[in-house]
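Quick question about two entries, pasted in order.
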Amino acid sequence: MSMEYPTIESIIGNTPLVRLQRMQGNSSNTILLKLEGQNPAGSVKDRPALSMIAEAEARSAISPGDTLIEATSGNTGIALAMAAAVRGYKMILIMPDNMSIERRAAMSAYGAELILVSDGMEGARDKALDMQRQGLGKVLNQFANPDNPLAHYGTTGPEIWQQTNGKITHFISSMGTTGTIMGASRYLKQKNPSVQVLGLQPEDGAQIPGIRRWSPEYLPAIFDRFAIDDVMDIGQVEAEECMRQLAREEGIFCGVSSGGAVAAALRVSKTVEDAIIVAIICDRGDRYLSTGVFLP
């Protein structure tokens, strides 16, 4: 009898949900962290990357051999490069030139072509659409593509609901494209409208990889402010200090935006009792080593 072995695609998702043990001190609350760095390409973005390619294929909008183009600050690009490699696409990724060397190297390892721009994510997004207009490839457009939040509505939200036995009271996620928070919150609020959904953005002047304060003209089309209960600002220093503390006290090695999400969870924990607070740990810390953020 032949055995069915898993493929790399089939092990995306079903990530662990672990309890914060030391950092919250004595509290009646439970803070749980969803370890998305356990995905095969190392981040929460594995979910929408596969979803956007698979759903576009199912609609016959793309087919293997096509060239795909995407603007990315890092994690989506790495995830798309992996998914494109598995499914047989050429991948062109456009990225701000201030992103870490590890991110560039990972994209190249999967065979993607990189184009670096000096005018940030806004410039990268504009260039991707310009290249599509020139017929150089097809843009998946994670910022406006409903298959991005659909991935989290279909997987991340249900996993969290099941892993907490439906007892989750608060959901916290950093916001970049906003796909994670849009999809997961839609599912969680359908199950229990009283679940509090809190989105995180960097405070003015903070440079936290993967999350943004978008100007109105670049606000992701998939974002619906009414789908979340509150937006919290997080500072650079607070996010980085919490990230380092997670590694040293909890053994959880993650990136800066994940540190921000846990800092926000700890803030919320001080204002409530008997709560089950879930925060997204969106990637792993080894993606940021060259930036020096872990040095004492």
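Here is the second entry:
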Amino acid sequence: MQKIFEALSSSPRRKILAYLAHTELNAGEIASRFAMSKPAVSQHLAILENAGLIESDKRGQFIYYRLMPDNLTNTLNAYVQEVCPVSRPLKAESANIARKRKASPKADPES
């Protein structure tokens, strides 16, 4: 439980969870949304994964991240994000990415 609270105590990590609300993203896609170094983003991702809030999947040269939806903490976090004005636009962006990927499943996410 301590790892979960520590993971959720960081604003960038809560934003990463919002970005992953509707779709999976690779590490580069996540990093491009933050004004911090890629190693710093990777550290945030590692903390979230260690807390059991996200999981990763290596595909070729990319590592993709997605929420672990069955985790009760993610369910509670999703509820809180509904009333959080900062998370709404991030979740909307996540939904738009998911729609685009469904419309064009063969598209390269890095292009």
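Reply: Residues 87-103 form the longest helix (17 residues). The chain has six helices and three strands. Hope that helps.
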